[in-house]
Amino acid sequence: MGYDIRTFGDPVLAAVADEVENIDAKIVRLSESMLQAMYKAPGLGLAAPQIGVQKKIFVYDIDDQPITLINPRIVESSGGWVYDEGCLSIPGLYVEILRPKQVLLEAVDLDGNEIRVEADELLARLFQHELDHLNGVLMFDRMTEEQKKEALSEYRKIVDGQVPRGESRHIVLK
Ligand code: NI
Fold first, then answer.
1. Distance (Å, rounded) from C-alpha 70 to C-alpha 21?
2. If you compute the radius of gyration of the chain from its CA atoms, what whole number of angstroms results?
3. Other CB atoms within 10 A of residue 22 CB
4. If you measure from the C-alpha of residue 28 to the centroid of ligand 1, how many angstroms do you get, rounded to a whole number?
5. Surrounding residues of ion ligand 1, Cβ less than 5 A
6. 12 CA from centroid of ligand 1 (Å)
7. pLDDT tens, 29-52?
8. Active site residues
9. What is the per-residue pLDDT across 60-92, written as a single tens digit (0 to 9) for each?
10. Which residue of 3, 9, 32, 156 sits 20 to 30 Å from the alpha carbon of 54, by its own alpha carbon?
11. Residue 86 C-alpha to ligand 1 middle, in angstroms?
């Protein structure tokens, strides 16, 4: 079954997802559907609310290895790093956002094992971005007021078709 990726304005993206109580066959199927939607997009990571499911799960693949994380939480973070961040739910828009450079993430895998991952730069960014989705937080909520204004107006142009197909807009941190 195919899923459409929900985009900015869909209320499911602003809701806090529920903890996963049991890792059953349904959760395994959900993670497979999420990976399918992510590869099709294509993107590096995808959170369950992005396909309309309010559960604390995200998937990612940055080293040709699909990974599913359940009930993730960031327990430590440090440093600062600016990265030109994008989101499948805000297609075509990239914004330079400052966030911690390193994080320590704890989660449960599909076999129910507790895992801890130390992440830096791109992986740390992906973790923070996907975790935000599980808390109903989008990139717009992580921008400065000035960036947010500019980003919303650029995004409106993309949605209205004023930006040529396949082109993206980048908002630089001042
Ligand atoms: Ni996103």
1. 10
2. 16
3. 8
4. 21
5. 87
6. 13
7. 999 999 999 999 999 999 999 999
8. 130
9. 999 999 999 999 999 999 999 999 999 999 999
10. 156
11. 7
